[in-house]
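hey so u asked for the seq, here:
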Amino acid sequence: MILDTHCFSAIGARTANDDAFATAKGAGYMLMALADGLGGHRGGGVAAGTAVQSIGRAFGERPDLGDESLAASVRCADEAVAAERARLGAHSSFHRTTLAFVACSNGNARWGHVGDTRIYFFRAGAQVLRTRDHSVSELTQSLPAALSPEPGDVTDSHRLLRVLGAGDGAALELAPHAVALQNGDAFLLCTDGVWSALSDEDFAAALAASSSAAEWGGRIRAAIEAQKRKDQDNYTAITAVYRTGAEANGMDKHGALSDGHQTLQ
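ran it, structure tokens below
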């Protein structure tokens, strides 16, 4: 069994890239992590990098998909970001980040997230899951019609309701249980610079037209770049496809990983 993975990250129209990603891998396990530091805030990029590196190290020390193990890994990341906030002193109030991760162990996967960095899960080419953003916009969309605000009433719809950096780990939303992976199962982890530019249908179509994680990621990136948006945010994604049996023969254990990829052993 092989997890074919690929990542890309680009600055877009911003002056700095506040996204960060990393993987931790070993015998029988792998963790993919992606984070987006609060845009435009000093320390956001540092927070994102700190989060993905910290959760990778913590999971590598205890590669278990149980509630306590994964929650402890996220707490390590949260505490590390909070420590960086304290070190920055005057700028500490801006040191926050989102976090999304998929942990795989012995043919099973479980995921969790904080903020609006998303995880998509596909089976047999069809999207079966997308994580819910921890944002004002997602909250108002989920309200019953009678309680929903009128258009224009919500002025901070992009404000995040959960972020990493408080040091208590309380913001994590964890999938209720692990999923036994099947051949062809696919994951997309992406920051808002990706999912705000393309639709869920675009992601599925790109997957259907691809024979590898690298090709899938390349199609997504090309579609974003073809728009040539002058307001394009940083855009970062990890694509992963699970292969078993004959389909795994001849494949590299991991696909191309590029653009500032950080690998944790």
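The CA atoms of residues 51 and 77 lie 5 Å apart. Residues 2-264 form a domain with the Phosphatase 2c; domain 1 fold (CATH 3.60.40.10).
lmk if thats what u needed
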